Description:
With about 475 residues, this protein is an alpha+beta fold. It is built from 16 helices and 13 strands. A hairpin with a 4-residue loop joins strand 5 (about 195-200) and strand 6.
Amino acid sequence: MAGRRLTNPAGSSNDLRGDVLRVLGVLKVATADQIQRIASPHLTYRHTTKATASERKTARTASHAGALSDLRKHGLAENGGTTRAGETLRNLTTKGLEAASYELGRPLSEMGSTARGAGSSGATHPMAVNETVIALLRPKPDLKLLTAEPAEAKTAAQAAVDAPAGVGTIASYATEVPLPATGTWGAPGKGGAQVDIVLTAPQDRIPLLFIEVDNCHETAEEIAAKLMKYSRFFKRTIKDTDGKDKPMWRTRWMARDAERGEAPHPPVLLVFNHIGARDPNRTVPRLRELTWPLWSGEPADGGYTSYDRKIPIIATGLRNLREHGPDGPVFLRLGRTHMQPLWDAIGNPRRDAALTRRAERSRAQQADHQEQLRRAAEQKTAEHEATRPACAGCGTKFDNARWENTRWSPEPGHRWHPTLCEPCETETVAAADQAERDRREAEAEPTAEKARSWRSRFRVGQAP
């Protein structure tokens, strides 16, 4: 125990330090509170009897604060300034990013920067990015770890468990990912964008989603310019390992392939955190006008809109996202007039419904065709059976082999009777054979009688 305390003076466990490395490896910079809410959400419902909110926060974040202290001792983490609310910001060092890459199972080249200096101005944007990740994740507390807590705390935890689930795990997210319109992944050139969050959660029906977080400081024109950079990146192609040109983004991420002539670009979600002077309710309509060529689709047969080579652009507010989660109808896709859950907003429900109807009609037509074939086969069989001959003796229908033989040899022969079934033919042949034997015996009887008569006369002539 003394040795472990000497190595990790704050007494943190390997699991706690691993949690911190995974969270900071994704978020780059975060507070102990945010790390705790993601890695150990059950702690949010502990220490609820303490007098003040500050005391409760200190108590529930103590474990992860200790893990951060131990990581700092090993040169893996460091303090990175404070938020505007006075909370200490934590980030990883270069050595810490390397350790986090092992925890997350990602190449070090995809880990991004150490985020040094992010807290020099309060880190309002990184904090909004982190809160967006938490709102999408909606971490669920483990109720088994709250059995000793007050009833009110357990009720609140149960409500969190019963609420709609979030999307993915912390490993499903990445932040500050470059989208190079020129250059390479490792050395992006000018003209590209840097996406705030990339979400890859195919297990939750979101194979790829790019997320931009705006604190309502940017104008619609500035956001539109960034989306134009997205468009440049999506159109860029490079040679893949098979030697064929492929969209650059497809060499790193999976997404739905072209299907029935439609291959939309990956969706982009805009999350507005209304702390700046810009009003999202005015920014979004103006943005819709500016970006119309990027997202507008074309009418397609079947009553839906095709978005081939278009970018699904969706907008929501961070407050609504926190309250309702990705399953809530709080997402507005540019070009649509009603709010939808995230899955519907990034997809094309009318297209899916039209394709489903088309598939159902195809299945119905195929079933009708099969039924017609079945009925035709039955009719043909019935007509065939109607011509099947019956035995002239017992009236039994011929089996297929007998019928085939009679068709090949319709003329009767010595032991062949094509109008009879095999049993009757056997009896008929046996009767004919018996009659023939009787006839021969009958013909042989007078000759035998004459022979006996001659021998009798011979014996009489020899008498003394």
